[in-house]
Amino acid sequence: MKNAEQRRYEARMGFYTHLVIFVPGISVLAGINFRFSPSVLWILFVLLGWGSGLLIHGLAAFWPLETQQQRAVSPRTKKVKLRPV
Fold this sequence. Notes:
Helices cover about 80% and strands about 0% of the residues. The chain has about 80 residues and is mainly alpha-helical. α1 (about 5-35) runs antiparallel to α2. The longest helix is centred in the first third of the chain and has 33 residues, at about 5-35.
């Protein structure tokens, strides 16, 4: 089982990979949009959709949710005493 630090590292590396794909991908698509159909800015829809996915990925990778969950659960687990089976 992976510890918290390893999971956090992998989540952040996944976000950076997503970002590295996002920037050139949007650039290429924007070039295609402006070259072939400059009157219709469909790139904005792609930017909004993919950008919101990137934002959610970034929040999931960098937001300290795990520590908040641990703080919420730890008072409850102190009250519970485990009995041997």
